[in-house]
Amino acid sequence: MKNSNVIELQQPGEIVDPLTELLRSGAKELISKAVEAELQELLAHYSDLTVNGKQTVIRNGYLPERTIQTGMGAVEVKIPKVRDRSGQGIKFNSKLIPPYLKRAKRVEAFLPFLYLKGISTGDFSEALKVLLGEDAKGLSANTISRLKADWVVEHKVWSRRDLSLKNYAYLWADGIHFNVRGDNDKSCILVIIGATDKGKKELVAINDGYRESESCWYEVLQDLRNRNLKSAPKLVIGDGALGFWKALPKVFPESRGQRCWVHKIANVLAKLPKSMQPKVKESLHNIMLAEDRETAYKAFDDTVKLYEAKYPNAMKCLLKDKDAMLAFYDFPAEHWRHIRTTNPIESTFATVRLRTSKTRNCVSRDSIFAMVFKLVESAEKRWQRLHGSDLMADVIIGTKFIDGVKQVEENDRSAA
Q: What does residue 80 show for φ and ψ, rounded to 5 degrees?
């Protein structure tokens, strides 16, 4: 039961930064694991204290759950207990969460600090102090290292999970670039998000990459096959990265490709003078939002005809992926808003990119990789199902759609 005396900091109508929401949901896990690391240190310290060959200091459940007010609102925490059979009265008291702590100090500084410096051993200690107050102790290097090690193990276990029961109708793929210490701008993190047969979005893969090369993407996709992902996705959405599109048919030759409209529009506009960008952008939106393929092709041709003479490079960029830009018309209209772009990935990483673009050298590559995995894992819990999720089964079995409309077979018409 929640403490009625705790006042949530978020006010009605407040606009919350997506990262704020992300970290709000992860605060409980962060605190819990830090306290658990403290407990493990205590148990290790008394591991040699035995009676009849058995350890005398062992864990013994939890104290009643209590609430601490943080900058992300009320967070419920459970502090573990120990049992001492030696008669010395050994107890576990968390220095991080003292018995009577009810409100964290200086919490308003926690969110950006945790993200920017929250993984490296030294800075993570500072971040937790900002969350829980300057008086919070127990943040030794061993405690932080144990916490980080847990994240590494979690990611390794997750990366080896069996996929034999998974069936993805759609996959979104993108390479996410970060400014990190020692990075030469050639490395990135390769991310794949999938839509299940129930319309639920979930993180499928997150791996290290190099220039989004064909070989790196091939390894990521082949790893899905190796872990028993037997059914190829019906549609894969990605940007114009050549490495990915070369690798895809080698692993999933049956899958169709849809180029991301957000990336395409950005690439086309980059080849235009600023004065022309709003007008051309409107034309591109008219293509993307056309109600059927015929109208889209006409808008496509009209746009090229109108601007090709003055801006040939921009129109050449647009024409490059013409058919792949309009693949979504062969899938349910209810899904178009989801499958025209790589937005499921872009929206998740938008705030992350905002932070890292201004903080070069603030964290190491290993640190930011661990943070990315934990942030996406947390965000995944709040991802909404696709609109028209009841049509996902039709997509997976290969039901034909024309301009977003399901086609009824002749025998089905007769039965009707």
A: -70, 160
245-263 average pLDDT score? 95
SS3 267: helix
Q: Which residues of 257-279 are buried (b: 16+ CB within 10 A; e: fewer)?
A: bbbbbebbbebbbebbeeeebee
Q: What is the mean pLDDT of residues 213-227?
A: 94
Cβ atoms of 7 and 67 within 8 Å: the answer is no
Domain assignment present for 92? yes
Within a domain: residue 48? yes
User: Tokens 């997509």 — which residue?
Assistant: 395
Q: How far apart are alpha carbons 102 and 68 in whole angstroms?
A: 5
User: What's the pTM?
Assistant: 0.68
d(CA 352, CA 363): 13
77: which strand partners?
Answer: 66
User: How many Cβ atoms from other residues are within 10 Å of residue 249's Cβ?
Assistant: 11
Tabulate helix, strand, coil % of the chain (nearest 5): 50, 15, 35
Residues 37 and 176 in one domain: no
- Specify the length of the chain in residues: 416
CB neighbourhood size of 402 (10 A): 11
Is residue 187 domain-shared with residue 255, that is, in the same domain?
yes
Same domain membership, residue 312 and residue 373 = yes
Domain region containing 325: 169-397
Written as six digits, the tokens of 40 are: 């493990």
Total domains in the fold of the chain? 2
Which pLDDT tens digit goes with each residue over 132-146?
A: 555 445 455 565 566
Q: Where do the DSSP E strands lie in 71-215?
A: 73-77, 80-84, 168-176, 187-196, 201-210
CB atoms within 10 A of CB 347: 13
Residue 327 · residue 256 · CB < 8 Å: yes
Pairwise CA distance, residues 30 & 346, whole Å: 25
Count of C-beta atoms within a 10 Å radius of residue 222: 14
